[in-house]
Write a structure and sequence with these properties.
Number of strands: 11
Shape: elongated
Oligomer: single chain
CATH architecture of the largest domain: 2-Layer Sandwich
Order of helices and strands: EEEHEHHEEEEEEEH
Largest sheet: 5 strands, antiparallel
CATH topology of the largest domain: Phosphorylase Kinase, domain 1
Helix content: 25-40%
Radius of gyration: 19 Å
Length: about 200
Amino acid sequence: MQQSFSATVSGNTVDGVLVVAIDNPPVNAASADMRAGLFAAIKHAREATDIQAAVITGAGRNFVGGADIKEFGQPMASPILPEVIELIEASGGQGLAFQADMTRASDCAAVVEAAMDRYGRLDYLDSKTVVALVYHRNKHPINVFIMPAATDRDTSPSAVTRRGYNVLSWTHNGMKYWAVSDLNETELRQFTELLTQ
């Protein structure tokens, strides 16, 4: 169910996870409205009995692009950013923040890898629910993430390596796939061929 926490912050609860979206174009500036909306969203997640976790995302190409220049020279309206962070941490929150362009395979791979390293699994990517599958090949886990693609055009797997993990990403039959493993690239490519048959 879609909820509005302020003019620039909304949320949608899916399977017990509140996905919070910051949408303050052009760069999702940390305005007073954004801070108030984020504070309200976290407070809502903390008090709701049907929400076990929250994911905070930024619309467009930015998560949060810094302070709102329209508010420069004015007293900082409450809640200030440290108060928002305190509420997140008081709620048991933790997270990862980094810059990523979700249209680039290498950035998507970095998001997947960072989440896997920190939490062991990933169920949301780019504010979308993804299918997370785990396979094994000779004691090497292969994590496969699948979500609807932006295009119906099939693409061949493209490879990147991040911190010892091989990541292949491709589209097939309207779905976007990522395969992440410490398995060597040749065997990982063979696996992806079998997966898409």
